[in-house]
Amino acid sequence: MTEIIKMYGLEFVVRDYECDLQGIVNNANYQHYLEHARHEFLISKGISFVDLHNEGLDLIVTKVEIDYKHPLKSRDKFIVRLTIQREGNVRLVFFQDIYRLPDEKHIVHAKVTGVATKKGRPVSPGDLVNRLNLE
Amino acid sequence: MTEIIKMYGLEFVVRDYECDLQGIVNNANYQHYLEHARHEFLISKGISFVDLHNEGLDLIVTKVEIDYKHPLKSRDKFIVRLTIQREGNVRLVFFQDIYRLPDEKHIVHAKVTGVATKKGRPVSPGDLVNRLNLE
Amino acid sequence: MTEIIKMYGLEFVVRDYECDLQGIVNNANYQHYLEHARHEFLISKGISFVDLHNEGLDLIVTKVEIDYKHPLKSRDKFIVRLTIQREGNVRLVFFQDIYRLPDEKHIVHAKVTGVATKKGRPVSPGDLVNRLNLE
Amino acid sequence: MTEIIKMYGLEFVVRDYECDLQGIVNNANYQHYLEHARHEFLISKGISFVDLHNEGLDLIVTKVEIDYKHPLKSRDKFIVRLTIQREGNVRLVFFQDIYRLPDEKHIVHAKVTGVATKKGRPVSPGDLVNRLNLE
User: Looking at CA atoms only, how far is residue B127 from chain D in angstroms?
Assistant: First the structure.
């Protein structure tokens, strides 16, 4: 139930509009990077966030914990790596790390907890988990 | 068909995250201000952008022209004023101006053209126009 | 050192562009709301985030923990309330809660940890703390 | 003075957070795409938007005209192509087009006018123009 699998990485480059008046990436934008990496990971497993939504199944984030270790600046290259873990009956936990490239400086560590919901109520993510090969 | 009615103003304050590394509001965020003012204007006329979408009627922007006259900075107060005009059979045109407060410095002038669509095809905005008292 | 003072609230309304294709506010935007409330709180105490940056003192968020309890939808009104606490020698902790208005539905609980830095190094937030009356 | 040179293209993929509750990319985000393409183009010519800002030279957009021809949806791939033209003594004009990939559907046509400024005043973009080989 708690296996962790190293499985996915997605590369980005900082866009200038993502930086704020401190000259560094605004904190909220890291959540965008993390979300995009999760959705692209799901797509790589044949799971479309949008198609699921249109079928009535929404993946909802219930908790986010982000450690900001070092800021990214304009045009920095970086990679978002993630692993995934099942927690209890309904929760999926993503562990996500951002590293600057090419020096692998550790930028962000995040734990993102989500549940699958139908009509606003949590449901077992059984089918999803099968597709993710978590069991 | 071309009457212009002075009709609406909405006040804002610049939020720090809307500024970029030049220390001024990022250009794209003015479109957010303009959009929010249009939607609040429609609400003030009893027209919900979201309800319309859920009924299958989407208001789509087809053209935006924005003159940037002077930048806004962190925590500036400003007002978005708008008038609306019908153009031809299917187009509605919003003229929108942003003025800094309290000195009424002219920040942005914009012309935003939109159409009403159902299933991606333009339809007459007749009912909308009636509610907007444009005729 | 650990006193908590109930001290600040700021009201918002959801803007349509802050919602994503699930029809609810995108997770990252709650961080924008929380940041804007913190900065307005500091301003209410005579402390300008931007002026501090221009003086070489940057307030940096080092950790964010957000519990998403219930989503906000288009045009929901809400309030961000915050308290602040000193932790150790260099950390300031903001506890922030978002409640929908007028029904006071609990939307988000967040703990945001920050430090003051000069040239990228943490410094004692002594002067800030004095101005915030935390001691 | 008015030569147009076909010179640059940059590929993107739509990220889910860029879509709004209509399920399509929010209008303001196209300005982000256009800006990022312009900045990456300048970088490809050895011109850093951020370095220029730090040297006191800011490139400022004075006018944006965008025709929205067809919306982009979640995960669409697209390319932003641009040409550049000098207009009068101080203005640079970017013509930018967005095409969906791989079908080359025309999504957006934009004309973006900018000036170089020092301390808020327009200056001749002579050195920039030399580096861009516009003469």
Answer: 21
How many domains in chain A?
Answer: 1
Most C CBs within 10 A among D17, D19, D21, D24, hence the mutation to make, goes to D21
Task: Supply the pTM of this predicted model.
Answer: 0.93
Could you tell me if D50 lies within 8 Å of chain A, comparing CB atoms?
A: yes
Predicted interface score ipTM higher than 0.95: no
pLDDT (tens digit, 9 = 90+) per residue, B31-82?
999 999 999 999 998 888 788 888 888 889 999 999 999 999 999 999 999 9
Q: Are residues D74 and C19, on separate chains, in Cβ contact within 8 Å? A: no
Task: Return left, alpha or beta for C83; rule: phi > 0 is left, psi -120 to 50 is alpha, else beta.
Answer: beta
DSSP three-state, residue D54? helix
B115-124 pLDDT, tens digit per residue, is 988 887 888 8
A53 touches chain D (CB under 8 A): no
Q: For position B104, which CATH number holds? A: 3.10.129.10
- Pair B82, B41: CB distance under 8 Å: yes
Residue numbers in C near B39 (CB within 8 A)? 15-16
One-letter amino acid at D123 equals V
Residue D1 lies in a domain: no
